[in-house]
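User: Here's a chain of 659 residues. Predict its fold as tokens.
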Amino acid sequence: MIQLNEIHFGYDGRMLMEGLSLHVRPGDRIGIVGPNGAGKTTLLRIIEGEIGSYSGTISRRKGIVTGCLPQDGIYEKGRSVYDAALAAFDDLIEIEDKIEKLNRKIAAGEDETAGDAFLERVGNLQMEYETRGGFTFRTETARVLTGLGFTESDFERDMSEFSGGWQMRVALARLLLRDPEILMLDEPTNHLDLPAIIWFENFLQTFDGAVIIISHDQYFLDKVVRRIAEFTQKKLELYDGNYSYYEVEKVKRLEILKNRFANQAREIRSTERFIERFRYKATKARQVQSRIKMLEKIDRIELPGAERNLSFKFKAREKSGKVVLQLKDVGKSYGDHEVLKGINITVNRGDRVGIIGANGLGKTTLMRVMAGRTDFEGVRKLGHKVSFSYFSQDQYELLSPDNTVLCEAQRSCGAGFDGNIRGILGVFLFSGDDVEKKVCMLSGGEKSRLLFAKMMANPANLLLLDEPTNHLDPQSRRMLEDVFLNYDGTICFVSHDRYFINNLATRIIEIVPGGYEEYIGNYEDYKEQKKLREQAAEEGRARDDDESNKNGDKTLSRKDVRRERAKFVAERAKALNPIRNRIAGIEEEIALLEDSAGTIESELADPATYNDQEKTKSLPGKLKHINNKLESLYDEWEMRSNELAGLEKDFDRKEFPGL
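Assistant: Prediction complete.
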């Protein structure tokens, strides 16, 4: 469908692509991964045709239709959500209008002289209208909007009433409805909640065309893609599998590359020693020249550079009081639409509060109330000596596009700032000439890192963070977790990243329709507590049913239900626990053997090993023995896992009254 060959591209003296190639085939599902600023978004813009100042060639199948969803920068007003999505079918609506006008002429008896030609024209338009989905496109538009989280009452609301994230959903709906042959998506899940992500995953699995996705969400990539293209050394390295396969295969390839590099380096050193030793001996002149030419022809292996990681610890300027923030009877409405009601929250020093819930229920609004960025009903009270920083996605709009990174960061330095702003920028991966890049040239992830650098230049003791991990690559996400875990202040944050929430939160506030619920602990604790609450609610309903069954109803009593449940759980544990224990044991054995194999492989890659004849003879045999054992364990692990999955499915199918 599209073939990129030897693409070279850069700007401001910085090369992003050198000899990059990619073949997009029908039905492809390609995930583009790599560090922020590597050129992922730029690549999509080149494929889409927005950038033409590259060298190399791009071959396209004639008439191919592509569609690209950008990361951000979409804003509309003056038309409804439904009309904005329906714009995907402007050509069908135009045909519809033509048919209607012609039918009115027929009904009025006009153009009678046109005869058969006139009727043929109407017929052709009607056939085109029908074959292109003229009778279903409005229903399809409503279906897609609903899948992306809009309610029917939202359809007629003006686009200007929605945040940038929701406007991105409308743009995504419009793109999906146009049904391009190649769908290009730049961080599509950043503005979706979990139900919308699941719907979108299912949609993409049934989409007929090819899909190219830039995403840092490895779970989304695992579900959707079948090939990974990683930006490395200004080219694309391809992996035929999903993200989990890529992570494993990348480690294997790197080990192989290191061994090849070591072998080549050894060969080069040996050749160079020969040249130096016999350079001035006439009898060896021909051999010396031969080896010099051989060196010149060697295609030297390059190892990828070490990944630059975010690594930084910071402390608040001063310690706050014990109570950091209080909200009392807080409510917020937009016109007749009530978003928050009866919010009573106390945030104490050292809390890390994760705020979760479906989009549209008021998470961002709650953060804006906490930050004092919107009007509301009720009371907001900051504690003693509290200073706060607020990170939100709309802060991108506050960045000055013509400023350099350094200039933009300097704007945030407080009056008492005594640090090194270049040092802080370096921590957030802006080093050397990077600090002279203009803000308008930054990727979404780079803008996020710049915003965090601005926050750290003036460290507050309360951080209010709305989706802080959006646009960040996996390495930056993990290091950002470390930064926040070592921070000595208080954090309130909104996130859909379950692993980020689980690692950071000490409290969970879930926004639900009509109110909120609080949970102590991280995301796993939240799930367990929520499950227990739901079970308690079910038991309460069962108790009510017991009391209402006074006429010989055969429904089991609550005591019988508990007895049956205990029996079921005991049977399940007796069947499954031995297999689970064996799987855990196998995994421990595999981990130990893989460590041993890695140690031997490192020794084999070390030239010094070959000075020891005993090692040279014994190590390959040991490695072979370990690899054989590993293969056996891998097979057993797969067999036991399948056995466990089968038994779990059998127990899940079993039913008894009360469960």
